[in-house]
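During the first year of the project, the team set up a workflow for recording each protein of interest as an amino acid sequence followed immediately by a discrete structure-token representation. This format lets reviewers and collaborators read both layers of information side by side without switching files. As required by the reporting guidelines, we include two representative entries from the current panel. The first entry is reproduced here exactly as it appears in our internal archive.
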Amino acid sequence: MKWEELHVGVQILIAFVLSTIVLWLAHIALLNQPNGRGFLYGVFWAVPLTVIIVGATRSERAKRLRAEGRDPST
């Protein structure tokens, strides 16, 4: 199933979980943060990253559907 076709709630969940894990590992490995603090920073920065990912996905899908002459609200 395509990413764009997933329900927005599923996209948010997937993007948030994956972003949290990646950012947590980055804070531990690259910034030498302790595990707990790295996890909190991962969660903190995963929120805006999730908004950016899902917002960009919805925007690009709507733009593509408009170019195809279809209604983006369906």
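The second entry, processed by the same pipeline in the following quarter, appears below.
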Amino acid sequence: MALPQRVTEFAPAATPANAARIRRCTFRRLSRLPDDSQASYEVSCLYPDRRLPMPLGILESSSAICASCAALHTFRPDED
């Protein structure tokens, strides 16, 4: 017979940023930084060949770089 188990509450992995929303790109890679106090992410761009990532910095500072990207075909179709 199965006994009911207590469910633990989990906090979300990331909280919404106060900055402008960043468009979803097929070449952007987010890596979580090992910081216990706050969820922060490092952004890398894999455009054009997806072999050598180009570091763009943390999510807040890279949003301006990603927003000014001239390669429009890189953004996902549901974002255009």
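For the second entry, the following points were noted during internal review. Strands lie at 28-32, 41-45, 54-58. The chain has a mean pLDDT of 77. Both points are flagged for discussion at the upcoming steering committee meeting.
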